[in-house]
Amino acid sequence: MLLPSNIDSNINSMIFVDNEQIPSLPSSLAIKIGLEIFKYLELLDRGQAKLVCRKWKKLINKVHFIEKYNIKLKTSAEVKQEAGNLSKPKKLKKKQHFFLIIVRLSKDYIKINVAAANALMILKKTKFSFVGSDFRGIQATGVRLARTILDKVNFSGANLEGADFTGCSLEDAILDGAELRDIQFGQLPYLNHQDDVLAMTVSPDGNYLASIDRENFYVWNLETFKAKKQTLKIKTDLYSDTEQFFLQFFHNGQFFLRSSSFEEKIEIWRTESLEMVNELTIDNVTFISLLTLTQDEKTLITISIKDDEEFSNEKTEICLWQINFNEQSLPQITKVKTKIIRGLAKKASYAPKTSIIAIHIEDCIEFYSLPNLEIKRDWTFLPLKGEEKYEVSDMIFTPQESQLMINIFTKTNVMPAEFKNKFKSKVYRWNMKNKKKGNYFLKKIV
Asked: Where in the sequence is the signal peptide annotated (predicted)?
């Protein structure tokens, strides 16, 4: 049936509005109709459907775009990537407008609630101002908008189930009749240290966090976020670029270990009461490179540089300590195995699943297996012999523990005064079993 030209023109202008600022985007009504039509095209060839007419082809492409955002809630990294793709001002304005259309369409088309939540999170990442927005009745379950200014936003009747509004400003916001089940409000907790936080660790049960600064260390209850504090007996050197700090919970979070590279002792503290229950002294050491526990928490591993009369040159000592509990259920530590190796170990890493230790010794990285501390000679990594001046800044096993990641700083051979503080950072990866080396990236650092 043919429609009178004036009626046909009115429908066309309602659906395909001519927007001078954003002519490529269909109106909200067009997208709503397109979503309904698209449901019935699932059993047909959508490619054929796109040939109906040029305007409907554009519409279907936009609906397909919405469907892509409606599959699942995007991770923080994915949201950041999406927002990063909108750096050009003209493109950003168009996309922000379109994301707002998605959000407002969710009022009547609840099946795009995931797309609406993703749209809001991307808008937030593009620094879009939500102040005074009309979001009545929108469907955005699970949306993450922590630390967002939402002053005067009208959320009345909206479905915000499972949303994260932690740390948000909600002055004069309207939430009447909104679905707020499992929503997160409140302020974000902070570690109120007086100085820079130098190390921290979380207990396996997630109930406690231990942290340390230059003068004090703290244990935080992560339910109440109240802290207990102890003053360090030996103040740490804030200007040392080699000192490491060791904190590790064990025995279901009831105790934790505390030490640092230049101390000759390891303290054992009871978590809840923050009282020291034992102290282990490591004689004649100048530097502790590693302090960690095996996966079953029955063995403590220390790697330290020795300095005593027995050795004319400094050497590295690997020690295994057995952890037992006495009648009062307090941890007792006994040395069970020691291995002395040549060279100075300033960096070390441990792979708990495979029980392998990696140690940077002079111009190579050696690997030792537990419990016998036998060297795995065929795994030795020798990429550093060609480097004139370098320092291994860090190394860590990948989660699968099949590769070791190594970051080194190198200085240039010719160093005029204006370039004497310039370094290059190189990151290697070393597959121990197939003995393949790879480079991740090279970065200049001033």
From this structure: none
- 436 by Cβ neighbours in 10 Å (0-12 / 13-18 / 19+) ranks as exposed
Task: Provide Rg for the chain, Cα atoms.
Answer: 30
Answer left, alpha or beta for residue 343, where phi above 0 means left and psi between -120 and 50 means alpha.
left
- Distance between CA 160 and CA 134 in Å, rounded? 14
**Contact predicate 300/323, CB 8 Å:** yes
Q: CA 385, CA 348: separation in Å to the nearest integer?
A: 19
The b/e string for 125-158 (b: 16+ C-beta within 10 A; e otherwise) is bbebebeebebbbbbbbbbbbeebebbebbbebb
- Sequence-distant contacts of 224-230: CB under 8 A, at least 24 apart: 225/189, 227/192, 228/274, 229/274, 230/274
Nearest to 258 by CA among 237, 279, 235, 241: 279
Q: What average pLDDT does this structure show over 306-313? A: 63
How far is 384 from 408, CA to CA, in rounded Å? 9
* Least reliable range by pLDDT among 91-95, 164-168, 289-293, 417-421: 417-421
The distance in angstroms from the start CA to the end CA of the chain is 74
Q: Measured between alpha carbons, how far is residue 111 from residues 144, 167, 441 in Å? A: 18, 28, 44
Q: How many residues does the chain have?
A: 446
Dist. CA 213–CA 231, nearest whole Å: 10
- In angstroms, the CA 353 to CA 377 distance is 20
pLDDT per position as a tens digit, 67-121: 888 889 999 989 998 888 887 777 788 889 889 989 998 988 888 899 999 999 9
CB 150 within 8 A of CB 138: no
Q: What is the largest CA-CA distance in the chain?
A: 106
CATH class of 70-186: mainly beta
* 415, pLDDT greater than 60: no
